[in-house]
Fold these 3 entries.
Entry 1:
Amino acid sequence: MSITSADICNAADALLGFVGFNRKLGKYIVRFSEDAFGMDVPDDSITPASEFVWVARDDQVMTLSRECLQILRDQNVNDRLNLGETLQLYLHRTDLPEIQAQRRRL
């Protein structure tokens, strides 16, 4: 079975949970409700995981960031995040450039 860029983009858009930057710890953390973050996470840093992995490069093009996906993978809750085989493969294929796409923010 071959995996296309569209498959990878769809998998990224299907990520679950929210990501917020914890000021006290100095790192990103994942929760599965927007209300589950403590006071050390500013409201403006809380982002759906499916948006967190996309980084704007200009007004129209976004890049599917392996660095941001790795932050999610490091949380060790792949099943809950819906970080499946397709995105794991994308993370491992560093010989290929990151995917760039025109997309609308959710």
Note: The chain has a mean pLDDT of 93.
Entry 2:
Amino acid sequence: MLSSRNRMRRSTDFSHTVRSGARSGRRNLVLYATSRQADLPSAFGFIVSKAIGNAVTRNLVKRRLREIAAQILEEYPRGLSVVVRALPAAGAADFNALAKDFRKAFSTVVSKARPAAPRVEQKGSAE
């Protein structure tokens, strides 16, 4: 389960991440991610619209996505803001299909969102 410090709640946080973040889409979901200050805990936000299905289906999808995010949070505990938008196909997907799409999309957006380490030029290197 995600703790409250790892949940995105303000609409400005959602907007910033979706508008300026790296994006990766899969069959069941779309992920957006931006880097945060390294000392801040990673935060996840979820968008699950009525296009997914009825309330029971939407809540099931949200619970599954939160569980997958909690697993990923162990690997990336700090420095990321992630928004997960569930697509209509997510309502019919099982946990394994959601997890597979989530992990693939996450690895793509993390590589785009993480700033590259600054290159240090070697003194006296021959060119």
Note: The beta strands are 22-25, 29-35, 43-47, 80-86.
Entry 3:
Amino acid sequence: MKETVAPEHKPVVVAEHYEKVDGRLASNLGAKGLSLGLTQWGDRGKVNISAKTWENTGEKCSMQSEELPLHRVFDLSILICKSLEYFQEAYRHEHLYDPQEPVIDRIALQGNAMTVGVCIDDESINENIELFSQALQDNDEMNSERLRALAKILKDMGY
């Protein structure tokens, strides 16, 4: 997704070719990819992690910021959880990932699969993945609280 990277969002973990698994919108001119990456919001250069949906407008990819179909929110949740799981063990790799095998997982959805992997197209991936990992650690308490609440709700719903 290198050609779609906006300066304010630096992808670290991506689900490229998302249009193949985009629910009822699969194979249409919908989302081309999902990403989790670094962004800087007014906090004196503090690095944060953001999620982004890469939309196909017919000419180029852009960010849809007003609304997301519900299934896409779930897919972003899957991407987030798979990334959190991956980064629990990422320290085992010299650069927090294996450049020869950047794919983290393939998750089956609607007869296809969402491929989750490290964004090796980014020239600054080694620096960005370290910042991403540190931001995950810095926000672990807040994220864990939300994951526990979500896990309880899913369990109560029978999942």
Note: The radius of gyration is 16 Å.
